[in-house]
Amino acid sequence: MGHNYSSKREAIFKTIASTKSHPSAAWVYEQLKEEIPNLSLGTVYRNIALFKEQGRIITVANVDGEERIDADTSDHAHFVCEKCHRVFDLHSSEQSPLEKELSRNGFIINRKNVVFHGECRDCCESIN
Amino acid sequence: MGHNYSSKREAIFKTIASTKSHPSAAWVYEQLKEEIPNLSLGTVYRNIALFKEQGRIITVANVDGEERIDADTSDHAHFVCEKCHRVFDLHSSEQSPLEKELSRNGFIINRKNVVFHGECRDCCESIN
DNA sequence: TTGAAAATCAGTAATCATTACTGTTTTCTG
DNA sequence: CAGAAAACAGTAATGATTACTGATTTTCAA
User: Does the pLDDT at position A111 exceed 90?
Assistant: First the structure.
């Protein structure tokens, strides 16, 4: 089902994949509006939903009511700054004992989501 | 600011604190509607926001667009079943090396949110 | 106790991210 | 190319959450 190609779909994925900003749908739309003036926000949402189904992107966190996504689907955690609202990557090597216990108890883990909230270094250092 | 008492506020907190279901605002409202027929959903939302400010409850996850809360503010993780939408508590003793690294790098952690998504044992066992 | 002042509330309207709908345009396949 | 399928733009609808306004509770000093 689905021919699975369209120029807009490709542009949307490229935009998501080429940033480490963990963007929202609105951000992706804003980025592409210049390049593709007749792009529709609905198309961005529709394709984001498709990419998630396909496992090409993941949902990272919900920041101020907006869903933030990531084309880096490798197992890693995130830090959300409550001041500047940026999202940072946290790559770790450790394996959680919780996961083993869940598996032992008959739970199937499809994905895990580890998010720290606080203030990033930049915001800690600024006087505001 | 705020005398910080009202019978409805108390009832709302009791309802949240007396369940392990990690409820949504709508669920709390539904529970109390019998007991307090003239309760307003806005009041539930307003008080949830207040409890969060006061640190008496935390946000656990966003399940199908609804924010789910928890009066257990102790450090623990959660498992969200993608089939039955129940939220399970996962208490662990381990300390994450990520936290230490964040502190070392000048980040302030206000809270952490660890959520596993998948299928719970009950849903795995059912034939559906 | 009482009776304003302050806080909270009910009810409703507004907001805002996301989703659905409809007629048009793009893409695919032969 | 031509027809069918998929994707799209533009707009309307949805649904959770928030804001507003006039009424009701709560507080607390007299």
Answer: no
User: What burial letters (b/e) apply to A13-44, b meaning 16+ CB within 10 Å?
Assistant: bebbeeeeebbbbebbbebbeeeeeebeeebb
For C10, nearest residue by CA–C1' is B40
Q: Which residues of B touch A62 (CB under 8 A)?
A: 62
**B94: confidence class by pLDDT, cuts 50, 70, 90:** low
B89-98 core/surface letters (b: 16 or more CB in 10 A; e: else): ebeeeeebeb
Q: Decide: CB of A42 under 7 A of nucleic strand C.
A: yes
Averaged pLDDT for residues A49-58: 96
Cα gap B77→B91, rounded to integer Å: 6
Confidence class for position A1, pLDDT limits 50, 70, 90: very low
Topology (CATH level 3) of domain A5-70:
Arc Repressor Mutant, subunit A (1.10.10)
List chain A domain ranges: 5-70, 77-127
Domain A77-127, CATH homologous superfamily name and number: Ferric-uptake regulator, C-terminal dimerisarion domain (3.30.1490.190)
Query: Which region among A39-53, A104-118, B29-43 has the lowest average model confidence (pLDDT)?
Result: A104-118
Q: In Å, what is the separation between the CA of A30 and the C1' of D8? A: 17
Q: Are A60 and A112 in contact (CB under 8 A)?
A: no
Output the pTM of the full model: 0.86
